[in-house]
Amino acid sequence: MINTNELMTMVESLPIDIKTQLIEKLLSSLTPAQKEIDELWAAEAERRAEEISEGNLTLIPGDQVFKEIQARLAK
Question: Tens of pLDDT along 46-69?
Answer without folding.
Answer: 999 999 999 998 899 999 999 999
